[in-house]
Write a structure and sequence with these properties.
heterodimer; A: alpha+beta; Alpha-Beta Plaits; 2 helices; 6 strands; B: Isopropylmalate Dehydrogenase; Isopropylmalate Dehydrogenase; 2 domains; two-stranded antiparallel ribbon; 11 helices; globular; binds nicotinamide-adenine-dinucleotide
Chain lengths: 119, 337
């Protein structure tokens, strides 16, 4: 069979315009909620930090909240950026001593966020 | 007798009419509760730009206990569910959902008396989702050892305090060896402190089949968030439907009691839905507040009204309105007093 049904269906999906807008960094630390001063990360600025899916920065953190040693730190770009900007950003983070488990690029698809927000 | 101050969140859809009926019954039970009404849900979005206003959060933080009607979650918009937000803000990590057969509702089984302990904050509910290409989406399933240990330990404590004999862990660790494996590992570790309780584990798909075939074999179940969400609806179906399934969301400092069911918006304003699930959640709340006598009184009266079948709601084959059913329970309590 040359073309399966799913391939035919797939061909009907409109290609989306994909634009890089930020990076989610997953950081492991025992030192509590990380801080990332604005201006130290080139075109990237930390927008929020969540722990187990709950936003822990900025704003109010319930004293009841249990946290683990793994933080999701969302960095959004302050200008148009490309993949090598991300490479540079990652090495800056590493040089500053942050230990990260993963990085996830954030894109918009046809202008809409293709990533979830934190609670 | 001490007065309790409780936050009332009437919610949306059929929520407000259900909560009024439930309040009528609870107030008639002899317990002294000062209710403080607060808003939550879509209505708040228009008024305050958020589903969960700060004023509501502050009131719950002050009172530490709330009774909540269902809310409506907009699908596919950017807004987060008010329910999930509440659980996150107060870290209400334990979702306790008992499934107990109501004696008078005829079912194929003689006994069902299961308490589900659903981890309420992690798993695929951590809201970490990305489109990683234009045709691939991913959702991170986050399971942590401290989060898993905490729910298991909570379940063991509850079981011990309430004379329950068996606690089983529900998982899919044969496939998800890291995430569900960690959940199971933390469960086994927590169990070591409770040698008097029989433990076991069951794979989630098999558990569903066993629940439908022979629910009497289960006592207490500890579940990660998503399996817990699904299995507790299954259990609700086994014991008489969503009209009867209660729940509690418990954290270290606050507790919010609410039914498993949603806001059933198609019936809103018709005063026909069954308030029993919120009422039984209220009964759980009274027991949590150590108001055992009032809790027992309401439960007994409710069973008696259901048994007579004269003043019951449509979902159990009657024609009574929400209010008539509640009034019948009040009358029954007064008759017995
Ligand atoms: N805890 C909560 O606040 C909560 C829980 C689940 C769903 N929801 C929200 O509720 C809305 C409606 O969701 P849904 O229609 O999927 O679920 P639902 O539970 O509101 O209703 C499903 C069906 O169950 C029956 N039912 C529910 N409650 C009943 C009652 N008290 N008495 C008699 N019959 C009852 C009705 O036939 C109804 O059509 C959605 O916006 C959903 O997000 C809220």
């Amino acid at each position: 069979m040359a073309t399966t049904f799913s391939e035919a269906a797939r061909a009907t999906r409109k290609k989306k315009e994909i634009k890089l807008v930020g990076v989610d960094m997953y950081i492991v630390t025992e030192q509590g909620i990380p801080t990332f001063p604005d201006g130290e990360f080139g075109p990237f600025k930390c927008e929020f930090i969540s722990n187990r899916g709950t936003k822990v920065w900025p704003g109010f953190v319930s004293p009841d909240l249990m946290m683990v040693n793994w933080y999701r730190c969302r960095f959004m770009s302050t200008r148009d950026v490309n993949d090598s900007d991300v490479d540079t950003f990652l090495s800056v983070l590493t040089k500053k001593g942050w230990w990260w488990s993963a990085a996830q690029k954030l894109w918009t698809h046809d202008g809409e966020a293709a990533y979830s927000k934190a609670y | 007798m001490a007065q309790h101050v409780v936050t009332m969140l009437p919610g949306e859809g059929t929520g407000p009419e259900i909560c009024e009926a439930v309040r009528l019954v609870i107030d008639a039970s002899g317990v002294d509760i000062k209710w403080e009404y607060e808003e939550i849900g879509l209505g708040c979005l228009e008024k305050y730009g958020t589903l969960l206003p700060d004023k509501t959060i502050k009131n719950i933080a002050k009172n530490k206990v709330a009774l909540k009607g269902p809310t409506t979650t907009p699908i596919g918009t950017g807004h987060k569910s008010a329910n999930v937000t509440l659980r996150k803000v107060f870290d209400l990590f334990a979702n306790v959902r008992p499934a107990k057969l109501i004696p008078v509702l005829k079912r194929p089984w003689d006994t069902i008396d299961i308490i589900n302990f659903r981890e309420n904050t992690e798993d695929s509910y951590a809201a970490i989702e990305h489109m990683v290409s234009d045709e691939v989406a991913q959702c991170l399933k986050v399971i942590t050892w401290p989060g898993s240990y905490r729910i298991a330990d909570f379940a063991f404590q509850w079981a011990k305090a309430n004379g329950r004999k068996k606690v089983y862990c529900v998982h899919k660790a044969n496939i998800m060896k890291m995430t569900d494996g960690l959940f199971l590992d933390a469960f086994r570790e927590a169990a070591k402190k409770y040698p008097e309780i029989e433990i076991g584990d069951v794979i989630v798909d098999n558990c569903c089949m066993q629940l439908v075939r022979n629910p009497a074999q289960f006592d207490c179940l500890v579940l990660p968030n998503l399996y817990g969400d699904i299995l507790t609806d299954l259990c609700a179906g086994l014991v008489g439907g969503l009209g009867f399934a209660p729940g509690a969301n418990i954290g270290d400092n606050c507790s919010i009691f609410e039914a498993v069911h949603g806001s059933a918006p198609k019936y809103a304003g018709m005063k026909k839905v069954n308030p029993s699930a919120v009422l039984v959640s209220g009964i759980m709340m009274l027991r949590w507040l150590k108001e055992t006598a009032a809790a027992d009184r309401i439960e007994k009266a409710m069973f008696a009204v259901l048994d007579e079948r004269k003043h019951v709601t449509y979902d159990v084959g009657g024609t009574a309105t929400t209010d008539e059913y509640a009034q019948a329970i009040v009358d029954k309590m007064h008759a017995k007093a």
